[in-house]
Amino acid sequence: PLSNVVSAVSNSEKIFAIDLGLGDGRGFAVLEVLGLPELTPLARVETELLNNISLFQGIEIKHDRLFLASSEIVWVYDVNQSDPELISKLEIGGGDIDALKALQFADKDLFFVSQQSSESSTFSIYDLTNLQTPVMLGDPITVQKGEIIQVSITESDVYALIKPIYEIDFAILHVLGVDGDRLWIKESYQIPGYITDMAVNNSIIACLL
After folding, report:
1. 81 Cβ partners below 8 Å, 6+ apart?
2. pLDDT value at position 202?
3. Cis amide linkage into residue 140, ω under 30° from 0
């Protein structure tokens, strides 16, 4: 049975949930696989992520790959089989990971990462077409340090909503362009209010106060 699920993603056939169990940091998080639509238990895979909520930074799925992130490492699983199989372990330097998003451009599998260092936040994008040799595309983008509220994607853009550190009256929405070679800032907007969520649909952006 599930006891302490902190996040879950799904494809058309399965739900993949991260269960931290006791959450005491003395064990490891478990990747639970449930079949749709009846939520039939299919598999339980112990991960390398310690079962501490402060270490868990996100889970993402794209096609047959599942990405599980701690503050320093991204584990990649092949979920196109009965038991998810760990196929790569990406150690990403440059600061603590606080958001991730998988996307595709042309024939490239891309991976967007937001990180925090002591003085700033950075956005970067990697080509993960070859998981053994991930390649950063272009240079990282440095912005004012803050907490990522949400990251959304469209076919060619990444929308990163960030709450600047020590600020409570506004958030900043960075609209980032993506192509097969680089990541860049198209526009940045200051949005007043205490923003808690965001939804993007084509050219319409909705922020929840």
Report:
1. none
2. 65
3. no
